Amino acid sequence: MATRSKATSRLILKFTEGDGAEGKAYQRSFNHFNPALTDEQIYQLGSALGALQTAHVVGIVRQDTAAIEASSPAA
After folding, report:
1. Are the C-beta atoms of 14 and 58 separated by less than 8 Å?
2. Cα dist. 17→6, 32, 45, 54, 60 in Å?
3. Contact indicator for 68, 14 with CB cutoff of 8 Å
4. Do the strands 24-33 and 56-70 form a parallel or antiparallel pair, or are they unpaired?
5. Can you give the residue ranges of every domain in the chain?
6. Which of 19, 42, 21 is nearest to 32 (CA)?
7. What is the spatial distance between Cα 72 and Cα 28, in angstroms, rounded to a whole number?
8. Are the C-beta atoms of residues 19 and 58 closer than 8 Å to each other?
9. Average pLDDT of the chain, as a whole number
10. Which pLDDT tens digit goes with each residue over 52-73?
11. Comparing C-alpha atoms, which of 9, 2, 4 is closest to residue 45?
12. Helix/strand/coil (H, E, C) string of 1-60?
């Protein structure tokens, strides 16, 4: 049986700077959030961090990662 370990979450804010076709799209990542945080909590963090930026936030993304390893057989 496989087990999940080393779980972490990343918050990604997507921005645009400028208007129309001249606008530049980019993103900013914030790593190592507790994976136990709810989607609502991640969204609130993203909104608060986005409010501190000068560019317009166009998206808030949560990315969860974890290692999958074979578990040792029970004795």
Report:
1. yes
2. 35, 26, 21, 8, 16
3. no
4. unpaired
5. 2-67
6. 42
7. 38
8. no
9. 89
10. 988 889 999 999 999 998 887 7
11. 9
12. CEEEEEEEEEEEEEEEECCHHHCEEEEEEEEEECCCCCHHHHHHHHHHHHHCCCCEEEEE
Return the structure tokens found at 18: 């400028």
From first to last of its 75 residues, the chain has per-residue pLDDT tens of 888 888 899 999 999 887 766 778 889 999 999 999 999 999 999 999 999 988 889 999 999 999 998 887 765
How many other CB atoms are there within 10 angstroms of residue 42's CB atom? 21
Q: Which residue type occupies 15?
A: F
Distance CA 14, CA 50 (A): 9
